[in-house]
Amino acid sequence: MTDQSEDRVDKVEDLFDTLPPNKRQHLYKILYGKTPEELALDCPGRTKELASNHGFDCQAYQFRAQEESTRAPRIVRVGLIQNSIAIATTEPVEQQRNAIIDKVRPMFQAAAEAGVNIVGLQECWTMPFAFCTRERLPWSEFAEDARTGPTVQFCIQMAKKYHMVVICPILERDCVRGDVIWNTATVVNDDGTVLGIQRKNHIPRVGDFNESTYYGEGNIGHPVFHTKYGRIGVNICYGRHHPLNWLMQQLNGAEIVFNPSATITGLSEPLWAIEARNAAIANSYFTCAINRVGVEMYPNAFTSGDGKAAHRDMGMFYGSSYMAAPDGSRTPGLSRERDGLLIVALDLNLCRQVVDKWGFRMTQRLEHYAKKLTAASSPDYQPQLVKAREEGTSSSREESKQMQNGCGHDCSRVSVDCSRFH
Amino acid sequence: MTDQSEDRVDKVEDLFDTLPPNKRQHLYKILYGKTPEELALDCPGRTKELASNHGFDCQAYQFRAQEESTRAPRIVRVGLIQNSIAIATTEPVEQQRNAIIDKVRPMFQAAAEAGVNIVGLQECWTMPFAFCTRERLPWSEFAEDARTGPTVQFCIQMAKKYHMVVICPILERDCVRGDVIWNTATVVNDDGTVLGIQRKNHIPRVGDFNESTYYGEGNIGHPVFHTKYGRIGVNICYGRHHPLNWLMQQLNGAEIVFNPSATITGLSEPLWAIEARNAAIANSYFTCAINRVGVEMYPNAFTSGDGKAAHRDMGMFYGSSYMAAPDGSRTPGLSRERDGLLIVALDLNLCRQVVDKWGFRMTQRLEHYAKKLTAASSPDYQPQLVKAREEGTSSSREESKQMQNGCGHDCSRVSVDCSRFH
């Protein structure tokens, strides 16, 4: 396969930008809610220079809110960092980690030059996403203590130096409690203290992502971290597919929720622009979708449960990190292929303004659904299924039986007409 | 303002289609999961002829599933109909309704020619969406009995004639129970019997959509209708903003959920492509988003709570009806301005295939969230909020107090730097 530049897409927005101005504007308004020009934010020369010198994508936007007479604007700057690994996965673990840290350090500096208050990094950002191999060693050696580990220590150093809050996703080893591994994000406060941690609440068993080989479902709940730059939640990777996970962050008061991820083309790319943005809309908060970039090669070939030959890579992590606002608008995405820093100035007041405008919380009927879900979570729940009375021998008893059989569908009644596909 | 054709967008996909073939293909793959060519379905000449003669947009697509050895494909054809009103809102109520029905009749015929099994219509499809006026008469006269009303009777006639299931959204008057008005969809089975009804579960109070002037939250729950063409749910309009509403349809076994809507540019257009599609992904079922088209003028001017002068229209309903599959792919949308019929052949087997592939149901931790929501629905729920210990006088007691005050945010700590927006 030739990978000629004309057949590659660095950003989907590059395609929008080839349209004539009036068409391009319509496209952005309809698809993204706002044009890049409406969201434009000036970026300091020093930030641009660092991006240029170190070869990472750098974009800056802003989400405004209406002026209010009793609240001042609550403007914070968020920086999202996406990165590839830095050296071969066959190198010693500590060298691999340090090489990534060294590469990302100037991105922190660039964020600081742009006045960023909160930095969010991708899932397990200082290691290859090696869970596809199903090998224990050496990958489990990347796991570290959530407060004292080397990745966290680097983020503490950055937090102190630049007075930033840092969301630092790591592979965690809980040495105090049985050496268990978790997929975790440490939240470092702007003074360098550890505010707390969040653990991945939903663990994928999808294709090469059967991460349950390494760690289980998080036991921390849905904490929201009260920082001076707003109330922050973390929803790690596969948790973005679960609306209830996002909802709990809303109910705990989040204004910004970070979604550190690792996901590849072919599997999830058409879902990527949908899910974190839907969460921003449904929950009236800002969301930050962060995905790694690049292809990671492993020393030993592995199969993927798809009948294909063993291979040494998992696929291409497509970056495309973006931020979505509670009003449904979103920023363009970062590069699909290169490291990147997305800087977004946002006014937290927009959250409550959208709560008032759209009324989703007032109308969400939480008590009603709490009862419904309690009933539905019972193993003998009877779905609310309506069947025609006159259809054959169907009776409520038969219907119950069908439900207990776990199918609930009388397949013989479904029309089968394959000839219609052509 | 001039409305020159070059400045109008009939479909957002028309903009995609102006790109060179390789760029266009990338755009569709990344944004929609599939190209129109991959989804292409031949449409019979008679259907195209009807569309051409009656001036409505007509598009046909298909969603395939993998072959299985123990289940035959379960292929059904769905038809979504979007329409404008047909004559002035000042005409007698019955004439208005009949004019719409007369206009939509050939669309049913075109659907039948294409072998459609299930037709879904837009919210309150035989009347103008007059709730913005806040006037009772004459608009409440459009309300009809959910089984014997004239709109339902027409759909029963269509169901019998063409052996179709019809989702018929109406303004309902429950004459048996106190003459109460509801926003309802009647589900007519393929033999013309009424299978049951669904009522709008979440009522908007947004801009011109304060529909609580006319009707309250539905009291039917989340029934799923077992037809021979699959298990069908209905989530009316504003209910699409509520993930729990979609979730209950999943838990009751839905394979296709219809979202009959009425929504306008300026308010919701950037959200439109996100929400029903996210629901398809999160719930592993097909979703059908159906929106009306056109601008509806009323005899009396009304204000909209936005400080602007009284006016006689609510805005432009932007159509753009589409269908999304559980794998995250979607069809292109119908016209933003014209009546339209979207025909989609789909294999219901895809639902369970996606359930197995992505595992969202296996990993959803329903029991966990049932408990969480039960706690969170209490008026004195204490959000899971983590604060720095060393910050001033903060103690758990103070934190609780803040929560009870309903804010939970110590605003004095938030940095305010307006100069950063420029």
From TrEMBL, chains A, B:
InterPro entries: Aliph_Amidase/BUP, C-N_Hydrolase, C-N_Hydrolase_sf
UniProt entry keywords in alphabetical sequence: Hydrolase
Gene Ontology molecular-function annotations: beta-ureidopropionase activity
Keyword Thylakoid: no
Classification via Pfam families: CN_hydrolase
Residue span, CN hydrolase domain: 76-348
Region (Disordered): 380-409
Family affiliation: Belongs to the carbon-nitrogen hydrolase superfamily. BUP family.
The name this protein goes by in its record: Beta-ureidopropionase
Organism: Ramazzottius varieornatus
Lineage: Eukaryota, Metazoa, Ecdysozoa, Tardigrada, Eutardigrada
Gene this protein is translated from: RvY_13874-1
